[in-house]
């Protein structure tokens, strides 16, 4: 599958994100208490490279908590980057004053998921859309009305007279999202960042709104960053797709290539999770093992390794994975086995501190060593055991040591870039390293 040309030219690129980080410091704040954390840093976006060319639709896809919205908000300067740069049409967004940022926001607009939250219930359609013009300094009420009418016609809300005086409560979900679109395009932007723009709409109107967005793209020469957890809509809508996991892009490339030949095990799992319209075809819907981990305490090595069916010995296995495996073992074996074995291994809370060694069962090291060996023998295919280098009886208990993990960077593999030890020059194929994520 051929990929699009990789050369960056100034005129070609409209958004150029390099090594972007957005870290939230949780120390002591009320949000951290709300989230049950009292210290630490959430790396919501962590070293992301992304480009958007004129006329292109780039999808940012991942589960809840992967950092998609934070990335989108950073593009508009709605959250502050803690590292890296975001260039919009050659200007670094981070270095702009508030006035300059307002000017940039004329050219780059955001469409949010929930049209109810995006529209003020006390404003009519005309007021809501006209307000975006007022903010940009359009003082003439006549000009505002003319442009609001034009904008409503563009988004298919006609005859416009029926809509101008309506309040959000008078409109359907699809109509509300059309009003949001009308407001987003009224100042003639060149980029729209659309954050789950259809996920709160009825199935019947989702395709229509996506089609509207494609029509607007053609008519108004727009480019989109399309943020979604839904690969199926991304397939329909996007030229390229970036798959995000825990603040990082783990795979990026042309949509057709990603669907035809997904490399990263996470991309493969997301693709398997797309519901199949044919009920006779049964596919695994669930992603393997558990939910996306806490971004304030990411797994060692590759962040996806605890859920990865293909994880190798050096993908980052550690103490917390051991705890998960022990708990899964006890869930399978029941309360009596749990009572007996947890007594031998003692308190597991030391395993919560990420480490490549773990010591358990101080009271009876011999019994603890025998028990860990037995648990391993019962389920030898559990991928975590590949990461264990030794299980030794010591005076302090059974000492379990893991390989040091690898945290793979994005590397080119055929038509995509992928961050996984199975690909690129770190992988068994020995393929050549890529030229940098942003050049996809
Ligand atoms: N202001 C904030 N302070 C602290 N942590 C935050 C803040 N905003 C987001 N986060 C955290 O950053 C991580 C990424 O969140 P983000 O909302 O960007 O993910 P997402 O992929 O867009 O998820 P969703 O689809 O649920 O919106 C999460 O762990 C989230 O809890």
Describe the overall structure:
β14 and β15 form a beta hairpin. α5 crosses α6 (141-154), α5 runs parallel beside α8 (173-185) and α6 (141-154) packs across α8 (173-185). An 8-stranded mixed beta sheet has the order 6-7-8-3-9-10-15-14, sandwiched between helices. Strands 2-1-4-5 form a 4-stranded antiparallel beta sheet, covered by helices on one side. It has a 3-stranded antiparallel beta sheet with strand order 11-13-12. It is elongated. The chain folds into 2 domains: 13-260, Rossmann fold; 319-402, no CATH class. The longest helix has 18 residues, at 203-220. The two termini are 14 Å apart. 34% of the residues lie in helices and 20% in strands. It has 15 helices and 15 strands. With 440 residues, the protein is of the alpha/beta class. It binds adenosine-5'-triphosphate. Adenosine-5'-triphosphate (ATP) is lined by residues 24, 31, 42, 44, 62, 64-70, 229, 295.
Summarize the structure.
With 440 residues, the protein is of the alpha/beta class.
């Amino acid at each position: 599958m051929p990929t699009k040309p990789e050369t960056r030219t100034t005129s070609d690129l409209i958004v150029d994100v390099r090594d972007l980080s957005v870290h939230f410091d949780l120390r002591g704040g009320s949000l951290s208490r709300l989230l049950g954390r009292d210290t630490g840093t959430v790396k919501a976006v962590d070293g992301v490279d992304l480009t958007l060319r004129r006329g292109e639709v780039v999808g940012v896809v991942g589960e809840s908590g992967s950092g998609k919205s934070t990335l989108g908000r950073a593009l508009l300067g709605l959250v502050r980057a803690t590292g890296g740069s975001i260039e919009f049409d050659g200007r670094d967004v981070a270095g702009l004053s508030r006035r300059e940022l307002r000017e940039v926001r004329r050219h780059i607009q955001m469409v949010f998921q929930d049209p109810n939250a995006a529209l003020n219930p006390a404003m009519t359609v005309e007021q809501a859309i006209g307000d975006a013009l007022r903010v940009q300094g359009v003082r003439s009420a006549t000009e505002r009305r003319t442009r609001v009418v034009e904008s409503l016609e563009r988004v298919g809300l006609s005859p416009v007279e029926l809509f101008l005086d309506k309040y959000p409560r008078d409109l359907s979900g699809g109509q509300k999202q059309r009003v949001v679109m009308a407001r987003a395009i009224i100042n003639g932007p060149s980029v729209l960042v659309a954050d789950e723009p259809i996920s709160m709409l009825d199935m019947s109107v989702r395709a229509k709104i996506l089609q509207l967005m494609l029509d607007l793209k053609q008519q108004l020469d727009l480019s989109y960053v399309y943020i979604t957890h839904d690969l199926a809509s991304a397939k329909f809508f996007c030229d390229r797709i970036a798959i995000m996991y825990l603040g990082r892009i783990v795979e990026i490339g042309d949509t057709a290539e990603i669907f035809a030949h997904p490399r990263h095990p996470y991309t493969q799992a997301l693709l398997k999770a797309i519901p199949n319209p044919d009920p006779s075809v049964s596919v695994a819907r669930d992603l393997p093992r558990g939910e996306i981990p806490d971004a304030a305490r990411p797994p060692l090595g590759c962040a996806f390794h605890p859920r990865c069916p293909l994880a190798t010995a050096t993908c980052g296995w550690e103490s917390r994975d051991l705890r998960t495996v022990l708990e899964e073992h006890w869930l399978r074996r029941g309360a009596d086995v749990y009572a007996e074995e947890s007594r031998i291994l003692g308190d597991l809370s030391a395993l919560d501190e990420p480490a490549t060694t773990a010591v358990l069962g101080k009271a009876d090291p011999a019994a603890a060593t025998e028990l860990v060996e037995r648990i391993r023998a019962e389920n030898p295919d559990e991928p975590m055991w590949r990461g264990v280098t030794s299980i030794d009886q010591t005076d302090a208990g059974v000492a379990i040591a893991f390989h040091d993990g690898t945290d793979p960077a994005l590397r080119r593999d055929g038509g995509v870039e992928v961050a996984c030890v199975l690909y690129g020059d770190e992988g068994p194929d020995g393929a050549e390293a890529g030229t940098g994520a942003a050049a996809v």
